[in-house]
Amino acid sequence: MKVAYSSLLHRYERLYERALEEGNAGKARFFALQCAGLLRKLASEELQFSHYYLKLAEDWERKAENVEVDVKKRSNGVERLITSSNVTWEDVGGLKEAKKLLAQAVGMTMAKVPGGFKPWKGVLLFGPPGTGKTLLAKALAGSMKATFIGVKVSDVLSKYFGESSKIASSIYALARQKAPSVVFIDEFDALAMKRSSMEDAGRRLLGTILAEMDGFQDSGGVITLASTNAPWDLDEAMLSRFPLRIYVPLPDEEGAREIFAIHLRGLPLRVTLESLARVAVKKLYSGREIANACTFAVLHMLEEMNPELSDPLKVGSIAGKELTIRPLEAKDFRYAFKRVKSPIKRELLKKYERWAREYGV
Ligand SMILES: Nc1ncnc2c1ncn2[C@@H]1O[C@H](COP(=O)(O)OP(=O)(O)O)[C@@H](O)[C@H]1O
Ligand SMILES: [Mg+2]
């Protein structure tokens, strides 16, 4: 095939693909017919292959006829990422400031703001692991009427390997179509390593996300929310897309008390939440460690009250049986606190705080 033809054909093919992803059936049909036309022309010029080219041309004509169906099929792919959530703000302990800033930013994107005022297009949640960043995003999803599209970077990279940048375009096409929308990119750090050392797929995905965020003058009712445990890995180009950077810190005593209350809901206690919160703060626990400690404490109590639980020979017979319980006591939590260790060292904590002071809001 002549080089000029083949590169033109490739181009049309790509534009066809792209139109499908954008959900633009008319455009997809147009480029499918361009491909068909080009192949028919080739058939008339290269007689010895004309049979072959004609068959390809017919394939494209069939695709042109079916664009509507294909557009639907594709969008179903990313539509699966639209999340519903039954997490509410009450399930998130502490983090008053973060909740407020987040609600504000998203509220402004959804509402009609007067004049030339431009709401944020990108919001970054950063802080130590386990502090509730993903949980905050879920609470946001559960509490508002916007479309919420949740993207976990590691999933996109593994499941759609090689196609990840296409997926990103489809995600934003969908978000605009269903605006107001929040695109939540969890584990953004997986994309934010030094770009030179990144896998190609990751680099393309990141490039597409940044381009999509830039692509429109006003936000079009789409806000991108990203979360990271390693904000210092973000370079200037990425940071500039996320002008609102919200610190999600380890809980203070007040926050830890609320988190204990959430994870011990409905359980009788013979200890005060305040005393538990004091220990958690001293041990540099995040919300995740507090949740784990609660589980250990409950297990400790259940084991004591239901000795058959720790008997491998009897454990088969307890399915469906009501377990005996008693109020949780200090000894249950002593057991739990011993087993749960925070992965965060003071030094690292200082690093977060420095970064927050320099770049956060
Ligand atoms: N502020 C919080 N309030 C209540 N539970 C929390 C909080 N932070 C963390 N958790 C608990 O820890 C788990 C992990 O939190 P997650 O939001 O995934 O942390 P991150 O995304 O910041 O690493 C949550 O599912 C929840 O059970
Ligand atoms: Mg998370």
Give the number of DSSP strands.
Answer: 5
**Order of strands across the main sheet:** 2-3-4-1-5
Name the CATH superfamily classification of the largest domain: P-loop containing nucleotide triphosphate hydrolases
Which structural class best describes the helix and strand composition? Answer: alpha/beta
Report the principal-axis shape. Answer: elongated
Major sheet characteristics = 5 strands, parallel
Distance between the termini: 58 Å
Bound molecules: adenosine-5'-diphosphate, magnesium ion
Query: Percentage of helical residues?
Result: 55-70%
CATH C-level class of the largest domain is Alpha Beta
What is the count of helical runs? 15
Gross CATH architecture of the largest domain: 3-Layer(aba) Sandwich
Protein name: ATPases of the AAA+ class
InterPro entries: AAA+_ATPase (IPR003593), ATPase_AAA_core (IPR003959), MT-severing_AAA_ATPase (IPR050304), P-loop_NTPase (IPR027417), Spast_Vps4_C (IPR015415)
GO molecular function, one term: ATP hydrolysis activity
Domain AAA+ ATPase: 119-252
